[in-house]
């Protein structure tokens, strides 16, 4: 079975630096991956390639069965859902929450002259309900809290029923309550058999939602470990990735890590 995303011996080099180095990685549509690694490891670069926002220096990237470099990336991106803080910054602050989500149907960030039909409106309203945003539909994006904005960006990413959903640090900078509410929603979404393949970048094992199945650990552009979550999340692999000794625990499907040495 060919995957929804295939990296084959991918390197990405800038100014002589190997930002990604020999990355081979395959994701199937029923897998939910977390990508973990320290600052500067290459996680965002991985997502930029996986969403067709950049090209590998060497190696190949296949997204939804199409080879990057031989396919119209704008068409391809319509089949992907992607949420990041960089994208959130492009949303006009005076745009309504409903429009912020609905404009994903046209891959635009602010409403202009596009004609939306009842289907688009109903779909956007349903997605807002699913992500606990129904009461905020008429609010403007700029008046939302950080946690609410992050949920709106995820709702926008799933609005078009993507075949692959990519989330870059969706829980970053959230307070404990907002983080836990978001992880519950993400866990529920990940557990649904109708959900697409997912990739979520994070810095913290505590932010891995229950229901995620696989992990990729990366450091200095190279894969440290990849595979089933429980096989990959080990103290040895965390030490190799973050350069510290950790105590790692798992409870009710969630992980926690605490440094034990240096
Ligand atoms: N176009 C570029 N030119 C030069 N260096 C780059 C370029 N893009 C990324 N880098 C560098 O590559 C490294 C990896 O960047 P990337 O943003 O992928 O890391 P990251 O794992 O997402 O980091 P963080 O966790 O801090 O967000 C960083 O050192 C970054 O400065």
UniProtKB/TrEMBL annotation:
Q: Keywords on this record?
A: ATP-binding, Nucleotide-binding, Transport
Q: Which residues form the ABC transporter domain?
A: 5-245
Family label? Belongs to the ABC transporter superfamily.
Against SMART domains, the record matches this protein to:
AAA
Name of protein = Iron complex transport system ATP-binding protein
Statement: the UniProt record of this protein carries the keyword ATP-binding? yes
Q: Which PANTHER family match?
A: METAL TRANSPORT SYSTEM ATP-BINDING PROTEIN TM_0124-RELATED
| Species, as recorded | Lysinibacter cavernae
